[in-house]
Amino acid sequence: MLMNAKTLVDKSLQSIKIDNKFNKSQNPVAPNLSEKIFSIIASSYAINKHIDFYNWLQTSVAEVLPHNVLLACWGDFESNSQKFNFNYDVASNLANIRTQALFDSPQKADDLMRQLHKSWSANNNRWLTVNNLDSFDVNKEIKSKLPEIFNEFKSLLVYGLSDLRASNDCLYVFFSTDTTFEVQDSLMGLLMPHIDNVLRKIQHIEPVDISEAASVSMIKSYNLSTRELEIIDWVKQGKTDGEIAMILYISQNTVKSHLKHVFEKLNVTRRAQAVAKLSYS
């Protein structure tokens, strides 16, 4: 007989309660967290868009794992190549930290991820926390590789997963402006498989790649502003107004206003028409 997601979660939580009762030595989940964890896991199955993932992280997940930014990085960490070869996805509640910011300075981001992967590997591939980042003596290697936009963070948590079929690893790095991360082993073991599952089923953000010649041509032909070009490129990638607002850290109304101006300049009425017209310009 097939079981729905809620039934599976109910059974998982029931086994957690049994384990907690008879095996107190294994750092069990605190009883008051059980309902929150159930809600987080159950709601994860309905997430299909990046904006929903962001809202889920910053509301439900943040209640049990407080953080400001989740940075996901995946690729071949064993490669000796020094060029930009990692994929990134960022969910951030800070205006200056977005996925595009990492694409704008890939070498710095790559260097940090390589160092964090090295620390994770040295910890026998177990998740780890680095606290008191504002104290340079805590971990000089990690502190020295933090890009400037990450300087306001005071702690981080690294959780890694190895994908043997794809022959690469994925690091999930939670950054916080708090001095320390205090997290239970059992909590991470329950949450991370679902965070990983959600990220694998939604489209990750790709870097905006507009050639200078194309940009100049479009600006001259249609008098599009730089912001309008940026927004229309996210439209080309299939992003909704809400997702574009989150990526650019502006309101949905601002996105709609920019798109309205784009439509007027291009003499079109729909997003598909705008994309098509710019594609053949």
Description:
The protein is an alpha+beta fold. Helix 2 packs antiparallel against helix 3 (50-64). It is built from twelve helices and five strands. The chain is globular. Helices cover 51% and strands 12% of the residues. The model is unreliable at 15-26 and 210-214 (pLDDT under 50). It has a five-stranded antiparallel sheet with strand order 2-1-5-4-3, sandwiched between helices.
Give the tally of β-strands: 5
Strand order of the largest sheet: 2-1-5-4-3
Cα distance spanning the termini: 56 Å
- Elements, N to C (H/E): HHHEEHHEHEEHHHHHH
Return Rg in Å: 21 Å
Q: Sheet with the most strands? A: 5 strands, antiparallel
What fraction strand?
5-15%
Shape: globular
Helix content: 40-55%
Return residue spans where pLDDT drops below 50 for at least 5 consecutive residues.
Answer: 15-26, 210-214
Rounded mean pLDDT score: 79
Structural class: alpha+beta
Q: Given the structure, what is the number of helices?
A: 12
Quick tags:
281 residues, 5-stranded antiparallel β-sheet, 51% helix, globular
Structure in a nutshell:
Helices cover about 50% and strands about 10% of the residues.
Provide the fold topology.
Elements: H1 5-22, H2 34-44, H3 50-64, E1 69-75, E2 87-92, H4 99-104, H5 106-122, E3 128-130, H6 140-145, E4 155-163, E5 168-176, H7 185-201, H8 212-222, H9 226-236, H10 241-248, H11 252-266, H12 271-279
Antiparallel strand pairs: 1-2, 1-5, 3-4, 4-5
Helix pairs in contact: 1-2, 2-3, 2-7, 3-7, 9-11, 9-12, 10-11
